[in-house]
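Protocol step 4 of 5: obtain the predicted structure for the target chain.
Materials: sequence only (see below). No template structures provided, no constraints applied. The aim of this step is simply to have a reference model before the mutagenesis design in step 5. Sequence pasted as it appears in the construct record:
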Amino acid sequence: DTFSGIGVAAVDFSIFNEETASGFLVVEDGDLDDGPDVEFSSAVANFAVDDIVSLLIELDGATFNIPGEVTTIGGTDAIVEQTLTTLSITFDPAEPFGVDIGDVGFGTPIFTIDLTGLAVGDSFGISFTADLDTPSVDVPAPAILSLFAFGLAGLGIARRRA
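Step 4 output (structure tokens):
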């Protein structure tokens, strides 16, 4: 969901699995009135069964400028790495509930996106990718299953003879 206003790019993201969600934001009248930077924030909710290991937010056609703050809902530590076009957030331990990026109404420091070179009506891309803590499941080898089946059959035969 996008809740952008003048000078603000607010994008909410809901996680259901490890797929990437992407879209475009359009520069609107008033976005460039105070300069090329717009505020960026996002409320990320985790609806997946597994915890969030990391988030990757990528821009196409615009750049991140001023770094902001990330607040986890579950109280885990968030390690933030920012380049011009990516915002990489790693959680330690994995985050079970979600995360607030920038100011989502609680007065935390904001991130900004630099729209230099864009005009009203132009758009830029944004994508979110979540890496989830999906536990691996050990599958028994066929030989072990065969031995188990033969053991059960042997017990059945022994029981019939008794």
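Step 4 remarks: The chain has one helix and twelve strands. The two ends are 69 Å apart (CA to CA).
Proceed to step 5.
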